[in-house]
Amino acid sequence: MSSEPLTLFNTRFIFAGILLLTLSLFQEGRKLPNNKEWYQLTVFGALNTALYLGIFIIALKEVAAGITTLMLALNPLMISIITSLWLKRKIAPREWASIALGIAGVGVATFPLIKNGYASFLGIVLLIISMLSYSVAAVYYSSVSWTLSRMTINGWQVLIGGILLLPFTLLFEGGHTQYDFRFWVSLGWLVVPVSILAVQLWLHLLKEDPVKASLWLFLCPIFGLVYASFLLKEPFTRYTVIGALMVIGSLLWGQSKNFTRKEG
Q1: Are 211 and 256 spatial neighbours (Cβ–Cβ below 8 Å)?
Q2: Tell me: the pLDDT tens digits for 106-152?
Q3: Computed from CA positions of residues 19, 24, 27, 32, in that sequence, does the dihedral angle turn out positive or negative?
Q4: Do 8 and 186 contact (CB within 8 A), yes or no?
Q5: pLDDT digits over 55-113, tens only?
Q6: What is the pTM of this model?
Q7: Cα 49–55–58 angle (5° rounding)?
Q8: Pick from 88, 202, 75: which is nearest to 136 by CA?
């Protein structure tokens, strides 16, 4: 192992933030956020980067990677419900029922993994907290009338998130990182395709419609379970299949009205 996880991700956040802000400076000129924008960026960075990814990384030590993708798949429902609460809209019984079905599906998929040591109860709890933070961040971002560009917002939020996460990295990790070729290749992948390109696209979709944007997360359990099985050799059992189908079914059931509205 070249790097401890929090160290790798903390380095990623700071590098990505500096790179994005440098690009923003050349494209848009020097423009620092005002007091209100500093507050908004700090809230967004704390929720979307420091809390979400910080807790997620810790949870990965307790839970098999395939299970994390099932938890990610529940984000569309979480975002839908949080959006409803934010906008004071009554939540339909179908939405509550679909959430219950999705949680039950995660339970079915994780039961044999917990039994065989691939996941712990603590890890599942941490994942739930992480997903909740991510969903709140998505709704918060879409509710703010930003005057800054997406690149500037992304640069500041990821840099602020990295700074907020730094004390925990120093506290919980022992500084055993090896800055070898594998470390820098991994960092490059996380910074450019993930932190810059993917997040820029995600922020664009969120501003259009947070609920419709979240529908793309349906792909997470499919790709995640396949990758975990082939790359990490994690067990792929009938419980995995049944649980994944329950989660995907809950998503399609809970979000079916959004598909209908989009087609109409």
Answers
A1: no
A2: 778 767 766 666 677 888 888 889 988 988 998 898 888 888 888 89
A3: negative
A4: yes
A5: 888 888 888 776 777 677 667 677 777 877 776 766 677 777 877 787 787 778 767 76
A6: 0.71
A7: 130
A8: 75
